[in-house]
Amino acid sequence: MEVMLSVIIGFMIIASITAIYAKDLLSAIIAQGFVGYGLVICFLILRAPDLAIIQIVMETVTLIIMVAVVLDSSREEFDIMPDKTQGVTIAASFLFALVLLIYFNRAISGLDRFGNHTLRMSEAYVTGAAEQTGSANLVAGVLWDFRGYDTLGEATVLFTAAIGVITIIRLVGKK
Amino acid sequence: MKGMSLIVKKMAQLMSGLIFVYGAYIATHGHLTPGGGFAGGALIAGAFILMILANGSGYVRLKRQEEGSSAVESAAVLMALLLATIGLAAGTMVFFNNYLPPGIPGRLISGGVIPLYNVFIGIEVAAALMTIFLALVIYKEEISK
Predict the structure, then answer these.
(1) ipTM of this model?
(2) B residues 93-132 closer than 8 Å to A (CB)
(3) Residue A146 lies in domain
(4) CA B48, CA A61: separation in Å to the nearest integer?
(5) Would you say B62 and B141 are in contact if contact means Cβ atoms under 8 Å apart?
C-alpha cells in the first residue's frame, strides 16, 4: 500500500511541477488534472470511496471550466520579467520552508506509524454508530449526526461562493 | 458560446438523463452506500452543464435560469437549516438532533433525518454549481457583445 501510494504521489509531484513550467496553458491544465485524478486513486487505496466520488466529480467539472476558459482566451502564458528582488524572495521562501519542516518534524514525532491509527476519538464513532443513527453508511451518519455543524459549514462555503461569483462577475447591474 | 456538432448533441441528450438519475440515486442512497448529498448534487449539476456545453448558450434562457437556480439554492439551504432547528424543539435541546426514529440500518427509509439532509444538500450543491457556471457563461456573453 505504501509503495503504491508513494509511486502515485511521486507522479503527482512530477505532474504539478510540469504544470508550473509548461509553456502551453492547455497542457498545464491536463497535467493539473493528472494531479486530481491521482488523488482519486490515493483515496481509493486508502479506502475512502465517499471522498473519491466527490473528488472525481469536482475534478471533472473544474477541468471542463478551466479548459473552456483557456480555449476562449489564450493558450500562451504571459512572460513576466524577473524581478530584481527575486533572490530575496527565493531565500525567504527557503527559510520559511525550513522553519515549517522543523516544526512539522516536531509535530509528527508523537504520532504512530503510517497505517496504525490511534483510535481514541474515532472509536466512539465507530462502535455502535450504525445503531445510534440508523444509517448503514457510517460516513453519512458521522457527517449529519455527530458533526452536523461541520457539514453545515461546508454547505455554507459553497453557498457563499455562488453568491460571491454572481456578485463579482456581473457587468450589467439589475434595475 | 456556440453549440457543438450533431453527434455531440445527440450523445449529450442520451447521456445527461442517465447522469441525472445516477446523481439522484447517489444523493438519496447517501445513508446506505458511499456518496451523499455533495457527490450527488455535483453529478446533477454535471448533467445540466453537459447539455448547455453541447447545445450552446442559446439552448436555455440564461438570465432566467440563473435567477431560478439561485432561488432554489437559497431555499434548499434554508430547508436544511430548518430541519436542524426542528431538532431544538423535539426532545432534548440539541441543534442537529436526530429526532426521527432511526429504523433498521440498511433499509432505504432509515437513519432518521439523515436522508432528508442528503436530499436538500444535494439540491443545494447542484443549484450552487449551476449558478456559478451560468454566471460565467453570462459574463462571457456580455463581454463578447
Answers:
(1) 0.81
(2) 95-96, 98, 101-106, 110-114, 117-118, 121, 124-125, 127-129, 131-132
(3) 119-175
(4) 11
(5) yes
Per-residue pLDDT of A86-137, as tens digits, reads 888 899 999 999 999 999 999 888 777 776 766 677 777 777 777 777 778 8
Q: A126 and A111, same structural domain?
A: no
Contacts of A137 (CB under 8 A, 6+ apart): A50, B30, B31, B32, B33, B34, B36
- Residue A168 shares a structural domain with residue A133: yes
What are A7's three cell numbers?
Answer: 509511486
Domain span holding position B58: 6-144
For residue B1, tell me if it sits in a domain. Answer: no
Rounded to whole angstroms, how far apart are CA atoms A26 and A20?
Answer: 12
Q: Which amino acid is at A124?
A: A
Q: What is the pLDDT of residues B6-41, one digit of tens each?
A: 999 999 999 999 999 999 999 999 888 888 888 899
Q: Based on the structure, what is the number of domains in chain B?
A: 1
Q: Report if residue B131 sits inside a domain.
A: yes
Chain A CB contacts of B95 below 8 Å:
148-149
Residue A171 CB coordination number (10 Å) = 10
Instruction: Give domain status of residue B137, yes or no.
Output: yes
B61 part of a folded domain = yes
Rounded-to-integer distance, Cα B132 and Cα A162, Å: 6
- For the residues A48-75, what does the mean pLDDT come to? 86
A77 and A94 housed in the same domain: yes
Residue B61 identity (one-letter amino acid): R
What is the model's pTM?
Answer: 0.82
User: Which of the four pLDDT bands, split at 50, 70 and 90, describes residue B99?
Assistant: confident
* Domain count for chain A: 2
Residue of B132, B136, B145 to mutate for A, most A C-beta atoms under 10 A: B132
Q: Do A169 and B136 touch (CB under 8 A)?
A: yes
Q: In terms of domains, do A111 and A172 share one?
A: no
Confidence of residue B112 (pLDDT cuts 50, 70, 90): confident
Residue B31 with chain A: CB contacts under 8 Å:
135-137, 140-141
Mean pLDDT (chain B, rounded): 86
Distance to chain A for B145, nearest Cα, Å: 11
